[in-house]
Amino acid sequence: MTRKSLCRDIQSVHQRLSLRQGQFQLTNEQSKAALKEISPYWLIGGGLCAGVMAGVIGWRKIYTVTNAGFSLYPFLTRCARRLMSTHHD
Length: 89
Hints:
Structural class: mainly alpha
Keywords: Membrane, Transmembrane, Transmembrane helix
Low-confidence stretches: none
């Protein structure tokens, strides 16, 4: 490879890295803002509930239930939208 093509490759990689870094910083700021809006009592309560559930049913079952919840989430949101749209008609 020539020096010119290597410089272009480096610039291309640098631009992609800068873009990813900017996206990461934006996501980080949004996460911080979302956490500031939540009451500390909700955070502590949620952590406590998660800890109790982990102790009662175990980590593997929590993982399974969480995966099932994530796979059902799009279905549940579509159903909720349909219910809301028929409710308003």
